[in-house]
Amino acid sequence: MEVMTLFTDKAQSLAIMLHTMNVMKAVVEHLDPGQIQFLVAGAPIYAFLKKIQFTMLDTHGEEKLFITMGGLHIELAAFRMAGKWLEGSGFTSVLIDAGVTTQRKADYVLKVSHIKISRYSHEVTAAAIRLLQQLDYQEHKLNDTDLLLRVVSPMLQYRDIVLKIELCILTILRSIREANFQLYMNTLIPLAPWFIALDHTNYARWLSVHIRDLIHIECERLDIAQVFKAGRIVAWKTMRPFSATALDHVLSNTDRTNLTDLTPYHHEEVGTWILRSCFTLLIQELQDTSRSWSRQ
Question: Record's PANTHER family (predicted)?
């Protein structure tokens, strides 16, 4: 069974993005009048949405709609950026020799084809480099990192840069898990220059816009800042600490997980309606009906 597309335009066209914003605004206003409206998107879609917002300030301006970059998309882009820095360094060979991953899964780490494998590998890498640093400090009896890098070896400087990138990415992940808005904003600022240095064009351009938006709400839109600080822009898997998930991560899993697994706290506090799950259920029902008819 094939499902025909509803629109002739591409999903990343300005017309479709504007239509999405209009539908979202109408739906949220109907369900909960006066609620602060949020849109979450990855860098390419985020760029389209922000261009529309900058152009149509009267109807889609920042006072009427807040557009934020998805946490999962930032994490994926950051791991790809780190993979580009590590490419050719023998990183994957070390992971295979240490038993962290297999030959088949090693390519997943640099290309971030599997987020869990990549995340685990980078966590192990950060821990291993930190242990090596401690051994280097003890061997050369130095406490100052910069002095150690200048005196000993460029390899130590390279490892130090890798550790800084890894810790920056993992801190962003921690801020999402804890719904810690201040930590999230403070970590994005030192991460942004690495996208520029390693030529990741979309995030080099638009992550700075996202950071500007976060600083703007901290200074001038205290109502939106309170929503962020209250942890209402993430989904909580459980009521336990360190169990929050970025909303775009929840959306990417709607085909494989049940939204009812999210806690009532999430539904009451965030008030997020994921329309894609409804379409998925409708398509599944149509497929089941089609199979039953074919059997008859």
Answer: CXC DOMAIN-CONTAINING PROTEIN-RELATED
Q: What are phi and psi of 200, to 5 degrees?
A: -95, 95
- φ/ψ of residue 235, rounded to 5: -105, 130
**Residue 90 in domain:** yes
Q: For 62-99, write each residue's pLDDT tens digit.
A: 888 888 898 888 999 999 999 889 888 888 888 888 88
Distance CA 222, CA 181 (A): 13
164 alpha carbon, distance to own chain's centre: 19
User: 246 near 253, Cβ under 8 Å?
Assistant: no
Q: Which residue range forms the structural domain that includes residue 116?
A: 74-201
**pLDDT at position 267:** 45
Q: Which residues pair with 246 in a beta bridge?
A: 234
- Residue type at 52 in one-letter notation: I
Return the number of other C-beta atoms located less than 10 Å from residue 214's C-beta. Answer: 21
C-alpha to C-alpha distance for 209 and 119, rounded to whole angstroms: 26
How far, in Å, CA of 231 to CA of 179, rounded? 5
The answer to whether residue 65 sits within a structural domain is: no
Residues 107-154: tens digit of each pLDDT? 778 788 888 888 988 999 999 988 888 887 777 666 655 565 556 677
| Interacting residues of 191 by C-beta distance below 8 A, sequence separation 6+ | 78, 168, 169, 172, 207
Domain-located, residue 88:
yes
Query: What pLDDT, in 10s, does the model give residues 284-293?
Result: 666 666 666 5
